[in-house]
Amino acid sequence: MSKPPTLTLPACARARRLATERGEFAVHDARPDGTPAGTALLVPGFTGSKEDFIGLLEPLAAAGFRVVAVDGRGQHETPGPDDESAYALSELAQDVHAQARALDAGPVHLLGHSFGGLVSRTAVLRDSAPFRSLTVMSSGPGAIVEAQQIRVRMLIDALGRMDMQSVWLAMRDLDPPEAEDAATPPEIGAFLHRRWMNTAPRQLVATGLQMIAEPDRVAELAAVPLPKHVVSGTADYVWPVSEMDTMAERLGARRTVVEGAEHSPNAQRPAATAAALAAFWHDADRETDR
């Protein structure tokens, strides 16, 4: 799971509820001084939340963009039902459309991290009109790698037999000794636990199964006339970086590899990631406006 570098919102941002026709969603809403150059909607991944993008808010607002990071249904501070069908990709994609409309900003730049990349591309394939561009970050062309499929199946099995606290403790026991980061501030560690406990178990089961079974839809996405951007770190344990390289070529997309980052460039190297995003969004706006 992504580990945010801080939990303190910058002065340009506030936590609020975004009311849509599909319910309310917890968001972090960051705004620049003056009229925004554009608006971006950020969709987190499996076990994630809006806090995964907290390091991007200030630099992107400084670059002129309004940025809204969201907790999807069943994630952290957005409640969700005890019904796996509510978390189908088609349902989550409709949520993204509702969020984009509720921002009342015209077409928005859409970014999805990890599983959020699959949600975002499903939203674009459903209807690209609400979006000015699509960025998929640390997200691949189809199913996750086999080693991660095994871990997700273990998690799904555990969620069927144990409560969330017991699963949390079991996951910690499975982590290798080197995964224990003594430098993690206590408040970040407490947040990770709190976020896990707030996440709807059925959401984890449904989205985990989708990550295992997701087909390659790159050819469909390539046919959508929208500026596209593929971002990753230099290494990734969920989808191989080489798969993301090939996906970008197939999409005709801009490709950014963030040095020093792995699966979460948004949290691990936020300044470099924000610079790449802002440059792409400015270029996409110019391309769209021509």
**Which regions are unreliable across 5 or more consecutive residues at pLDDT < 50?**
176-180
CATH domain class name: Alpha Beta
Q: Radius of gyration, rounded?
A: 18 Å
Structural class: alpha/beta
Neighbour order of strands in the largest sheet: 1-2-4-3-5-6-7-8
Description of the molecule:
InterPro entries: AB_hydrolase, AB_hydrolase_1, AB_hydrolase_fold. GO terms for molecular function: triacylglycerol lipase activity. Keywords: Hydrolase. This protein is of the alpha/beta class. The chain has one domain (13-289): Rossmann fold (3-Layer(aba) Sandwich), CATH 3.40.50.1820. The chain has eleven helices and eight strands. The protein has helices at residues 54-62, 89-102, 115-126, 146-159, 164-174, 186-198, 201-213, 218-222, 241-251, 265-268, 270-289; strands spanning 13-20, 23-30, 38-43, 65-70, 108-113, 131-137, 228-233, 254-258. An eight-stranded mixed sheet has the order 1-2-4-3-5-6-7-8, with helices on both faces. Helix 3 (115-126) links the parallel strand 5 and strand 6 (131-137). Helix 1 crosses helix 11 (270-289).
